[in-house]
Amino acid sequence: MRKPEEHTISDTSQHATADRAVDAVVVGAGISGLATAHLLRRAGLDVAVYERDERAGGSIQTEKRDGFVFEPGPNSVLDTSEALRQVIVDVGLRERVEFAADAAKNRYIVRDGRLQALPLSPPGLIRSRLFSTGTKLRLLREPFVRPAPPAAEETLAEFVLRRLGREFLDYAIDPFVSGTFAGRPEELCVRTAFKRLYALEQNHGSLIRGAIRLRRERQKEAAAGEKVQLQAGPGQRMFSFAGGMRTLVDALVADIEPALHTDRGVREIRTAAGGYVLGGICDGGAWAVRARAVVLTLDAHAYADLDFGFDFPFTARLGEIPYPPVTAAFSGFRRDPTGGALDGFGFLTPRLEKRRILGTLFNSCLFPGRAPEGGAALTTFIGGRRQPEHAAWDDDRMRGAVLEEHRALLGIECEPDLFLLRRWPRAIPQYLIGHRQLVEEIAAYEAGQPGLYLSGNFRGGISVADCVTQARDTVDRVCEYLR
């Protein structure tokens, strides 16, 4: 764990001393760490947050240039988390929430080289050219397919083939997985990567029956006003913020600012009387902090950079969690190059179509201010588990591929006025078969290592909403322990 050529805090300071003492230390200032720190402070605890990068926010980055807004990481969030709603209210962003335009309901899948609308209703399914008559009839059988045994470990592909059939897997689920996880359905575990889908089958015996019941329940909750509401109406709506997703990060940073220390990564953690001592090296020399509790919100592979002064048996296994490379390419046009044809969330490409991109978001259709008036903003994603080598193409080849795919699929003939690339060498953790066992072992380990908690998007879900929900649950455990 410790690299021989590196110095650690133990080499340069007294083993039992620390610069300061706090109730809890949060390591990492992505959305998981920021939300955790915010909630700990609201619980009345003294908190310190350490982030090795110069800026907080992790993959949530908003770049504004020449009237365009580029978000290479999360560009929106689904309204599924009461914890996130409460955080938004806490930091005063309720009035800055922007719900996606109605056009966001229109989503497209490439089939036979053309964009086909994803059907959103039973009548739409009947009229759809995306699926064959056989697949449409197969969907009518879904409510009568028996659920898998509760303990079964299935890949998403196995799950969908059993319930919905091959064509639905190839032209609905496969592109969806590439657009969310940048992954492959034959690798991801349905129970851990798609918990809601798994729960629909287990709790209702059918995806279709379960979806209908949940929709009715959300409508009742919204009508009764039982949940924290960002806006009247049923949940599950997609939203962002005025100015982009970075607005949420900036508000959380301002909220916890006295506790936040950027450009200061933790290198060592060891036990000490009453808790833990953490430390590292920075421009000012060695530093250390004592805490009663520690919450780690790092990427799984980042645990290899930590030197644990006690038994921590998960470093190698965490390092084996795949994080495929993804490159985000932004195309900004001062005039809409399609003459108003962009009318949806965007499109995704199934593997069978053999395209060079995973898909493209129509950012300027979703939220206001993403492009100059009358212009258009598109974000295209390349690489993932499907085509990892594509994410490493040089800038010229990347640009050429994006422009050619847009010409073929969207009819765009002109060059963009602004073209930007953001490369993520390790983008999104993949929840493969066996991931659930690892997470369960980590939970058992935490029970035997009081005051130490592992959080972050390799555990509990990859979305912003999932990360904030997990932060709330972790904070509840920290507060219970510290009492």
Principal-axis shape equals globular
- Using only C-alpha atoms, the radius of gyration works out to 23 Å
Instruction: Look at the helices and sheets and give the structural class.
Output: alpha/beta
Please name the CATH topology of the largest domain.
FAD/NAD(P)-binding domain
Reported for the largest beta sheet, the result is: 8 strands, mixed
When the domains are counted, the total is 3
**CATH level-four homologous superfamily name of the largest domain:** FAD/NAD(P)-binding domain
Compute the number of strand runs.
20
End-to-end Cα distance, whole Å, is: 33 Å
Distinct helical segment count: 16
Unreliable sequence segments: 1-16
The CATH class assignment of the largest domain is Alpha Beta
Verbal overview:
The chain starts with 8 loop residues before the first helix and ends with a helix. The N terminus is likely disordered. The protein is α/β, with parallel strands linked by helices and about 475 residues long. The strands form four sheets. Strands 1, 2, 10, 11, 12, 13, 14 and 20 form an eight-stranded mixed sheet that branches. The protein has a seven-stranded mixed sheet with strand order 8-7-16-17-18-15-19. Helix content is about 35%, strand content about 20%. It has 16 helices and 20 strands.
